[in-house]
Amino acid sequence: MNFISARFLKPSLALVLLAASHGLQASQTYTLPSSQEKPLNDENIQALQKISKGVSSVARYAAKTVAFVSVYKTNRGLPPGMIDPFEFFFGQNGNGGRPRGAQPRNAEPQERREGGLGSGFIIDLSQGYIMTNNHVVQDADEIQIKLANGKTHEAKIIGRDPNTDIAIVQISDKNFDRTGLSQVVLGNSDEVNVGDFAVAVGAPYGLEASVSFGIISALARGSLHITQMGNFIQTDAAINPGNSGGPLLNTSGQVIGMNSAIYSKSGGYNGIGFAVPSNLARVVGQQLISGGKVSRGYIGVGLQPIDPELINSLNLPKDTAGTLVARIAENGPAAKAGIEPGDVITFINKKAIHDESEAINAIGLMLPGSPVNITVFRNGKLKELTAKIGEYPSENMAMPAKESKVQDFSFGLALQKLTASAREQFNLDSKSGLLVVAVAKGGESERVGIQPGDLILAVNGKPVSDTASFNALVKQSGARALLRIERAGQYFFVPLKN
Asked: Which CATH number is 349's domain given?
């Protein structure tokens, strides 16, 4: 039965109303006049028809590979006033991402079963492996997979990686019915260009096998604060809640990305969707299947973006692209390779690096033990270095800085020598430097983002240990001084106008 007529009008009533609105009698018939004009069929129309048929072919192929992921969770109750992250994403009873809100503060925690719907795609039909988003399955107690042939099966998690929002699930029944199904071909996302056509498939708001068509709007969108790794592909193909984990395909039917997020103030489609690149998905998926986890590459550097002020302070060419090395881990792979703070990484394995996200992805996706060629800009010259990739160590959360007593200001900063108690208080790694205990309001130091609790390590590459040396080095620097700073274990450079 037609959904609209079933919900709003009985079919017979709809016909009666339609006839009455035109003043027709039940016995009368009406025939539209035939047109003598031929349908449009010039070469431009033919080109559009070919595009339409091409999209239709991609959609038919993709439909055989797409899986619809239903997840269920038993919520055993949260403290009053807390919002369940599962409910925030899927909405109450899986209603498409509209948050129900926090429990009343006087409410008793209650156990309830919740569900949500996402998408995925078959990457290995023989083994029953399906790729989807980590955020779709991470809190699920039960996973069910509905395939294109209409059959539904239970599935289990093989591995998931929150850093890239990628997960692999497997159909539990090894003898599941594979009739009418196919597996995707993962394309090369490095070959994707802005303006390329793109097709997205998924289950937006639970509407299974929905297809949308658009273009690639942008590339290398960084982590977008969604994940720790991943240069997202941006597309205007319609993506909505329920599309998460579904494939983004090119005009050859190859998967070039996995739909993961949307930019929206309302929770619905705004023409801005993001997909995990297929090359990243391939590497992570293979590791998850092989070992259930992902080993992230590591060289032991802290990176920061470069901007026009830093380019001037570092005497770099105006068109320099890359990422600035702000910190070197002691005895880490980068230190052993000769990389230094102040170096600007411009190439990794001969591939141009435009920002820190690209560098993090390039290093993070390499296997520990493999060699990596790194080109840096140092003292006006390019220098090639070779490092050996290590495995990413466990991460420690930085403690918030605490207030300290204000002293005399130098260049808008109240400074004091680093003490053992201050080092512990502000969670600092360095053993020497000048601690910022206050920042003058409205001054240059506040403008560039220096905060109480920061530790100034060097001015123009020269270490500082007392206020006198700091003042002297800043004055000697002329119009601009380049400060190297640690903030709770994070290292970066700041250009300070004199």
From this structure: 2.30.42.10
Domain extent, residue 151, equals 66-102+110-171
- Which of 97-111, 171-185, 249-263 is the most confident on average? 171-185
**Do you know the residue count of the chain?**
498
- Mean pLDDT (whole number) for 443-465: 86
Whether 98 has a pLDDT exceeding 50, the answer reads no
Binning the chain into helix, strand and coil, the percentages to the nearest 5 are 20, 30, 45
Average pLDDT of the chain, as a whole number? 77
- DSSP code per residue over 108-166: PP--EEEEEEEEEEEEETTTTEEEEEHHHHTT-SEEEEE-TTS-EEEEEEEEEETTTTE
Q: Are residues 277 and 326 in the same domain?
A: no
Would you state the pLDDT for residue 156?
93
Nearest by Cα to 75 from 90, 60, 61, 53: 90
> Within a domain: residue 33?
no
User: Mind telling me the catalytic residues?
Assistant: 135, 165, 244
Comparing CA positions, the residue from 149, 183, 147 lying closest to residue 70 is 147
| One-character DSSP codes across 33-84 | PPP-SPPP-SHHHHHHHHHHHHHHHHHHHHHTTEEEEEEEEEE----TT---
Pairing, β 142-146 against β 301-304: unpaired
Question: For the chain, how long is the longest CA-to-CA vector?
Answer: 104
How many helices, marked H, and strands, marked E, lie in the chain? Answer: 12, 27
Assess if residue 320 is contained within a domain: yes
| Residue closest to 117 by CA, chosen among 200, 206, 46 | 206
Q: Does the residue 342 lie in any domain?
A: yes
| CATH number, position 93 | 2.40.10.10
Strand (E) positions, 188-299? 197-202, 210-218, 233-235, 247-249, 255-262, 273-277, 297-298
- Looking at the structure, do residues 379 and 308 belong to the same domain, yes or no? yes
SS3 of residue 271 by DSSP: coil
Confidence tier at 403 by pLDDT (50, 70, 90): very low
Contacts (Cβ under 8 Å, ≥6 apart) of 15: none
> Domain check: are 317 and 282 in the same one?
no
Is pLDDT at 161 greater than 60 in this prediction?
yes
* Number of structural domains found in the chain: 4
Give residue 37's identity as a one-letter amino acid code: E
pTM greater than 0.70: no
CB 432 within 8 A of CB 485: no
Check: CB of residue 247 under 8 Å from CB of residue 200: yes
pLDDT tens readout for residues 354-371: 888 888 888 887 878 889
Q: Across residues 408-428, what is the average pLDDT?
A: 76
